[in-house]
Amino acid sequence: MNHEDASHGPAPLGSVDPAPMHDAVEALAASLHEYVEAAVGVRAEFGAAEADEDPRILALEQRVGSFNAHLFDRLHEALGMHPDLTSSVWEPGADDADAASASVATRDDLAEEFYLGFVVAPPAGTADMGLDDVVGLLDDAGARVVERLVDSGFDVVEWTASRGDAFDETSDGVDDPDDDGPADPGTEDRR
Fold first, then answer.
1. Which residue from 163, 169, 168, 171 is spatially nearest to 188, judged by alpha carbons?
2. N or C end of the chain: which has fewer CB within 10 A?
3. What is the pLDDT of residue 20?
4. Whole-structure pTM over 0.85, yes or no?
5. What is the sign, positive or negative, of the torsion defined by CA atoms of 11, 14, 20, 26?
6. Where is the composition biased (Acidic residues) (predicted)?
7. What's the rounded Cα separation, in Å, for the pair 158 and 176?
């Protein structure tokens, strides 16, 4: 596809024949109907997990994707647009408004803590980094992990890179006889 033709220019387009685009929509719609019929049949034979991996379903998913790409190409060639036709967006309806607000209200309740721990010994001999530099290194790595999680749709409520025990909000710096670890919360960079 050439991005220097008239369809990609700043000027409005004159007469455009929509027939090839409508033909592509019809082919995509037919493949979607074929998928639905096959999915109903396969699901009648197998459980959900097996049906997801059934070769007939996988082949039809490939076919739907191919027709979707063909529609994209027809729109792009004729109009110079880059349509996002594969996103799935669920918006709450009027009846779902209360459920959506309830799910937001409990989101913090559903959050779980994850830890990745390191026990690091000082380098043997001379080195460019010392133990004091480890928190900064972990902080940089943590920022990259947070970015990947957010890009994947997760909400990272808080995160920390620390020296010593894993961050504990209830830690008061006093030794707890029931606790096996030291009371020193260490150096932390809490977000």
1. 163
2. N
3. 95
4. no
5. positive
6. 167-182
7. 25
Encoding tokens for residue 40? 């109903």
Name the residue among 41, 63, 66, 69 with its Cα closest to residue 54. Answer: 41
Furthest-apart CA atoms within the chain: distance in Å: 81
Q: In terms of pLDDT, which residue wins out, 20 or 11?
A: 20
Amino acid identity for residue 136 in this structure: G
pLDDT at residue number 96 = 60
Task: Please determine, for residue 58, whether its predicted confidence score (pLDDT) is greater than 90.
Answer: yes
Report helix, strand or coil for 190.
Answer: strand
CA distance 60 to 113: 40
Paired tokens of 99: 């459920």
Task: Give the integer Cα–Cα distance in Å for 133 and 118.
Answer: 14
Determine phi and psi for 39, rounding to 5 degrees: -60, -40
Domain boundaries, the chain: 6-79, 111-190
Chain position carrying tokens 């006093």: 174
Which residue is associated with the tokens 């197998």?
Answer: 46
